[in-house]
Amino acid sequence: MVFDASSKGKGHKSLNDCLNPSPPLNTRLHDILLRFREFEYSFCSDIQGAAFRIGMAEEVIGYLRFFWFPDKQDLKSYKILRMTRVPFGVTSSPFVLAATIKYHIRKYKQERREDYEMLNSSFYVDDLFYCANTVNEALDLSISAVENSQKYEPEFAKI
């Protein structure tokens, strides 16, 4: 479900008009693409259900209410529901997702410095893009990332 936070009534502001998109925390896509030219092998992965794993603070979910019409024929019967997870379509959602990923990546910094460097410089939204000089190096990095993602967060899928 996409929450249309840019919707507004005549003469009123939308939710997105009232939110700060915040600075971008993702690695620039340009830098990721250039890295593909430097190395012979690359791999990518996705964080499984990233946005759906991030809960919203109790004090903000009131701003994410919406009407739900269980019976489309009867518009008088509706429910008022609230988003409890980071919704798609809200200006601040990309920042919240990136900040959460960065928070979890910091857990690797002490124990697995090489994994930390890879993860910290290779995410674009919830996708990991990385390169290596050899097949074995790429395989070792991807196996290490998967093993550690089971110990920490985030959990990778589709490597």
Number of strands: 6
- Could you describe the largest sheet, including whether it forms a barrel? 4 strands, antiparallel
Strand order of the largest sheet: 4-5-1-6
**SS element count, helices:** 5
| Helical content band | 25-40%
Could you tell me the mean pLDDT?
83
Low-confidence stretches: none
Rg, alpha carbons:
19 Å
Q: Strand pairing plus helix content: what structural class?
A: alpha+beta
Protein name: Reverse transcriptase domain-containing protein
Organism: Araneus ventricosus (Orbweaver spider)
GO biological process, one term: DNA biosynthetic process
Description of the molecule:
It comes from Araneus ventricosus (Orbweaver spider). The chain is 33% helix and 16% strand. The longest helix is centred in the last third of the chain and has 17 residues. The protein contains five helices and six strands; from the N terminus they run H-E-E-E-H-H-H-E-E-H-E. The protein has a domain of 97 residues. The protein is an alpha+beta fold and 159 residues long.
List keywords for this structure.
159 residues, alpha+beta, two-stranded antiparallel sheet, 5 helices
Strands, helices and their partners?
Layout: H1 29-38, E1 41-47, E2 65-68, E3 79-82, H2 93-105, H3 108-111, H4 113-120, E4 123-124, E5 127-132, H5 135-151, E6 156-157
Antiparallel strand pairs: 1-5, 1-6, 2-3, 4-5
Organism: Araneus ventricosus
Protein name: Reverse transcriptase domain-containing protein
InterPro entries: DNA/RNA_pol_sf, Rev_trsase/Diguanyl_cyclase
